[in-house]
């Protein structure tokens, strides 16, 4: 991947993936069931998308809506299947009932991932202590990205937090890249770019006709051009 700012797009199937790559996406987040905010896709779906595009794919590891890990045995089994099918980048993140990082679940999963790169997703926006979460996860192998809006309610309310965290890049717990997503709009980009943010994640914004319609290559291209401006 080049040094340009990263644009990651949610893809549900091969059609989405091809359109996103055509529009200029650098990476895809693969999920299914957006009614549950994105769950683990089937191994067959991963394989079909992997055959359709040649950009990096990050596969969601999550079996139910919310940020509880649930059945960790089932989740590690799915991770093993995806690894066997060639998946080598992932998205995960779980909290305990009191908003602390669920290290037991996370560590069991990353043991299966065996060094693969992964994103800790928007569970950070629901954490009781963002800074504490970052520091507790700091030494986990493969963690290179946090997907965050800066606030549970979205980027509108998280701009100040995102800028503050970007300013701490390189400090313990702040080495992973910040991938901004969750209510992200084009009009946020100048403020975010000025603050030094260099990675952006879109889902619904890539689908002007809604989640029942596929990704629009033109919509992705609009984002690509705006990010690069």
UniProtKB/TrEMBL annotation:
Gene3D superfamilies xref list: Copper homeostasis (CutC) domain
Highest taxon of source: Bacteria
InterPro entries attached to this UniProt entry: CutC-like (IPR005627), CutC-like_dom_sf (IPR036822)
PANTHER family membership: COPPER HOMEOSTASIS PROTEIN CUTC (PTHR12598), COPPER HOMEOSTASIS PROTEIN CUTC HOMOLOG (PTHR12598:SF0)
Family: Belongs to the CutC family.
Protein name: Copper homeostasis protein cutC homolog
Species name: Streptomyces tanashiensis
């Amino acid at each position: 991947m080049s040094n340009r700012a990263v644009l990651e797009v949610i893809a549900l199937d091969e059609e989405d993936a091809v359109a996103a790559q055509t529009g200029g996406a650098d990476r895809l987040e693969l999920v299914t069931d957006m009614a549950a905010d994105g769950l683990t896709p089937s191994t067959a779906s991963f394989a079909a998308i992997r055959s359709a595009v040649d950009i990096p794919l990050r596969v969601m590891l999550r079996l139910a809506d919310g940020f509880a890990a649930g059945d960790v045995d089932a989740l590690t089994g799915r991770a093993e299947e995806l690894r066997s099918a060639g998946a080598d980048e992932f998205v995960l993140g779980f909290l305990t009932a009191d908003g602390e990082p669920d290290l037991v679940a996370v560590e069991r999963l990353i043991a299966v991932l065996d060094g693969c790169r992964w994103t800790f997703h928007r569970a950070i926006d629901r954490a009781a202590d963002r800074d504490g979460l970052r520091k507790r996860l700091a030494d986990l192998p493969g963690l290179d990205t946090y997907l965050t809006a800066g606030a549970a309610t979205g980027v509108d309310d998280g701009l100040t937090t995102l800028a503050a965290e970007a300013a701490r890049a390189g400090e313990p717990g702040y080495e992973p890249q910040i991938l901004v997503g969750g209510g992200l709009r084009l009009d946020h980009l100048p403020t975010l770019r000025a603050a030094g943010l260099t990675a952006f994640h879109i889902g619904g914004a890539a689908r002007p006709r809604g989640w029942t319609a596929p990704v629009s290559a033109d919509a992705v291209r609009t984002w690509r051009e705006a990010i690069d401006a």
